[in-house]
């Protein structure tokens, strides 16, 4: 099986007509439509999905703006799988990475937290004073972040929200981020476990702020000439894109590292910002110098934005166009114009689900399709009110992964390659070049080979001198000394014999 990246796209009608939008899966290389799911009209931040994995089929939710409905779909059918009635109209939704918990925010500032497999309403609380615009789970699902029109950002610990003993007490945030002055428009969580991760937030106050959750502090503030509506963060956290709400559709690229020239060590990467509340970096619309390379003009209002798995920038507009840009060069690679007349409300990359509707199994020796062999992760109707008895007796079905599952990711990206690429970004460059530079390595090899040849020549000369010294010192000097010693030893032996013979004769004369 070859991994195939596709684009998950949700559209909505500019009017309030229900059901005129769609959820469409596009081929990222050709822009062709692979699958389409109708009867949805979800607004921005109102769509979320879980891909198929671990022998379980994936699903996605779309909250309807004009009704108390949440539409649930799975990738095996192009129709609505389940219509869920919710207590209030949802203005934003979020799903944790495992697909176990679903959160929804409302215009009254209330958050609902459900368990997907049982439908149990675990918690509902007044989180903000005004409408909640965005919800985000941390990558490990240990915390939930919420941004509101009241300019506040609250961080909620999932442990406290699910704790049975705290169900009857007022839910309090783990901590709050309160440096924005106008409504919050987007939140992105960086890599790492909670709270060892960083967070990007944008607001109508023309600012994007970088936070450190471990220290609960503001690292840097980026000020823009226009209000920012959506963000896209590169996975290595070396740069991010910020899209403005202007009709021109401006996208700013902000590098979080810069190169400094050192005469002794060469180029050195240095982190930008980190000075705290007073550290403010102002971004302008100047088209000269490096600013021109960091600004993309789309020409239309931007509604959503994301980075693909291959680091291409996906941009959705209010006129229904999807633009794909090359991140390093900002070159427009492709435009998908299938959804003209609609507004792109959600964009995200994903690997093509193996159980996608209309696509058969990759096992050609079997007459059974993949859809027949992969069950969908269970989804139950959500409770509208909290029920303590239901929480106590509820049971959740779970399918354990089989041992035959193979990680297809390792077939084209080995662990050695991952470690090598990781070292490329994390190893400091003391010699002015990186370890992966082929030209530098070849030059270094040539230099070492010439040095080895020189050392071999010097070694040959040293051996010649050593042989000459051996011939001169050992064979002439030492042999001469040995011969002289032998002669001296012979004379002394003869004298000894004579002395003993004379002594013996004298003794005999005495005795006689």
Can you give a write-up of this model?
The structure is a single chain. The protein has 512 residues and is of the alpha+beta class. Helices cover 21% and strands 35% of the residues. The strands form eight sheets. Strands 16-17-18-19-25 form a five-stranded mixed β-sheet, with no helix packed on it. A four-stranded antiparallel β-sheet has the order 3-2-1-31, with no helix packed on it. It has a four-stranded antiparallel β-sheet with strand order 4-5-6-7, with no helix packed on it. The longest helix is centred in the C-terminal third of the chain and has 74 residues, at 438-511.
Short recap of the structure:
With 512 residues, the chain is α+β, with helices and mostly antiparallel strands.
SSE class: alpha+beta
Helix % is 10-25%
Uncertain spans = 287-292, 360-371, 404-411, 431-436
Q: Characterize the quaternary organization of these chains.
A: single chain
Strand percent estimate: 25-35%
Number of strands: 31
What's the overall average pLDDT, rounded?
83
For the biggest β-sheet, the strand order reads 16-17-18-19-25
What is the general shape? elongated
Radius of gyration: 38 Å
Total of DSSP H or I helical runs spanning 4+ residues: 6
Main sheet attributes: strand count, strand direction, barrel closure: 5 strands, mixed
The end-to-end distance, rounded to whole angstroms, is: 121 Å
